[in-house]
Amino acid sequence: MEEIPVKVAVRIRPLLCKEVLHNHQACVRVIPNTQQIIIGRDRVFTFDFVFGKNSTQDEVYNTCIKPLVLSLIEGYNATVFAYGQTGSGKTYTIGGGHVASVVEGQKGIIPRAIHEIFQNISENPSIDFSIKVSYIEVYKEDLRDLLELETSMKDLHIREDEKGNTVIVGAKECQVESADEVMSLLEMGNAARHTGTTQMNEHSSRSHAIFTISICQVEKNIEAGEDGSWYSHRQIVSKFHFVDLAGSERVTKTGNTGERFKESIQINSGLLALGNVISALGDPRRKSSHIPYRDAKITRLLKDSLGGSAKTVMITCVSPSSSDFDESLNSLKYANRARNIRNKPTLNFSPESDRMDEMEF
């Protein structure tokens, strides 16, 4: 099992019209033909992938995510998560938001990945695929099922199965047959998400959302061996998590008060816990020490993706505006630390088929 690092991409959105109107300068730029970014006068960061303000959704998907989709079909777990301050383009990049109304070229990562998965399935007629999706929101440290709003928060629990994979007990998993079906479930879940107006963004995501596609595949052709014995084919079960994290920003910038203020504190404590996990995993000196996954729900859910057995891409979205300099610098530092994390991706054979083999043996 070889270790591979978490891949980190940084995407800089263009300046918004209102920022141009208020004469904001761009303080982040990409060094042409490299994967490097300069912020401020002279701070240089290097990442696996860098997307400047003219990058297209297509480019982001093909460079970072397509390889993950192919790994998923091979039987590896995969995760992509979008991180960054409010209004930096996370939900746009990941393709949450109002999916149905988005024009083709603007579609984000999730819709593209869904189409690619179904495309791959149609090209593999010798394998039986079954696909399920679930959609969970972590709002103020409570889990909410976005596909089954009747489920009370008390009925959802995070557990680990015997292989150490994190599972959410009580979450609704919908069996799906087509890309359109997945899209309508995604649309339904997005409509139920907690968003709220802050000074920085009128549709700010106030929760972390995790959209998961699980694929179970079994080969169809079971042949008899030469001695007349039958051998069963293994089942492969793999999952792809798409994680849209809530915006990270200082409360003073969002102008939040009352309920929104409490919400910001919860969001920031979740992101702080995530930062602590990333730091602990990325620090070679802390190899054997405790990793604080249990400090927040979001870190427990991402345990497998950070330092676990999944292939992971982190996309950090950054605003180039000079007024967001501190926030952008923090996001880049955060992303830089994540590059030191190493995962050990493993193929996911279903435990049942392993047990059958043992019993037969």
UniProtKB/TrEMBL annotation:
Domain Kinesin motor: 5-341
GO biological processes: microtubule-based movement; mitotic spindle organization; spindle elongation
Any one GO CC term of the record: cilium
Gene Ontology molecular function, alphabetical: ATP binding; microtubule binding; microtubule motor activity
Pfam families listed in its UniProt record: Kinesin
Stored SUPFAM superfamilies: P-loop containing nucleoside triphosphate hydrolases
Chain positions recorded as ATP binding sites: G84, Q85, T86, G87, S88, G89, K90, T91
InterPro entries attached to this UniProt entry: Kinesin-like_fam (IPR027640), Kinesin_motor_CS (IPR019821), Kinesin_motor_dom (IPR001752), Kinesin_motor_dom_sf (IPR036961), P-loop_NTPase (IPR027417)
SMART domains, sorted: KISc (SM00129)
Superkingdom in the source lineage: Eukaryota
Cellular localization per UniProt: Cell projection, Cilium; Cytoplasm, Cytoskeleton
Protein's recorded name: Kinesin-like protein
Organism in which the protein naturally occurs: Gulo gulo (Wolverine)
Organism lineage: Eukaryota, Metazoa, Chordata, Craniata, Vertebrata
